[in-house]
Specification:
Elements lengths: L7 H21 L4 H8 L13 H20 L1 H14 L3 H10 L1 H7 L5 E7 L4 E6 L2 H18 L2 H4 L2
Antiparallel strand pairs: 1-2
Helix pairs in contact: 1-3, 4-7
The protein binds zinc ion.
Length: 159
Amino acid sequence: MNPIPEKIEDLGEWINQNKNNYLRNVDSSICNKWRDYYYYNETPLPCCCKIRTGDCIFLECFYKVEYAKELVDNKKLYISALNSYKAIQHNSAAIMEWVIDNEALYNNVIHLNPQIRVMTQLYPHKSHYIKLPQQELKEILEFKNVFIKHFYSEEYENY
Ligand SMILES: [Zn+2]
């Protein structure tokens, strides 16, 4: 696997370079979840292979890089949601409506973290980390944090 680039503008190229490898591995991997994801669009759950094979680790890296890249490509959606939040952030009734309106958008970013973590070994536990370009993710992560803050508030629970 080529090393994962640190700049978001290079992620697309990395994805293109690794796409064939990805498609080959999807079909040959003993980890069925990648086939279920690719052919039936089922969300891959964390891996429970007793021994993680290189192809399964690669498939997970690819999946997570592509996920982050797609979110960044759609960054303007999150910036716009954040701007409408900032306009109403002192009006709690309006915030509750904002939470309702933005739940689907939040579901897209539910798995986004400042870095990608890929578990490489179950016992003893070992993980590989891929740092994502923080500047590119800034507004998306801010949207996620603001949403979580209100979605899990007592106020929203009683709304
Ligand atoms: Zn696996």
